[in-house]
């Protein structure tokens, strides 16, 4: 599952669980791009549970959108990554060091309150979800 939700004008949340196929990846990334169009100085909560490596088609869908995805980096200032896998949390923090201007901090799944506080408490009711897009 890949679900994208716009929680506020400057907040987009992603939720990933299980294995993602090409169709789901394409839709999720298109939703992310669409819902992030008007975000400035944004924050993102990225929740990853029971991660399974995406299939080849899903990776191809992501690679096809890489230029647009890199364009999103300037729209977001902070990204909190919640995951039940230590290696994902470590990878997220390493990734954060590679992108100047985007601060990435990783949290265990049971630290959602701390992640919200770190993001600045931007946790309004959803404006739009990927189902609305």
Automatic annotation (TrEMBL):
* Pfam families assigned to the protein according to its UniProt record, in alphabetical order: SpoIIAA-like (PF11964)
Instruction: Tell me which domain of life the UniProt entry assigns to the organism this sequence originates from.
Output: Bacteria
Name of protein: SpoIIAA-like
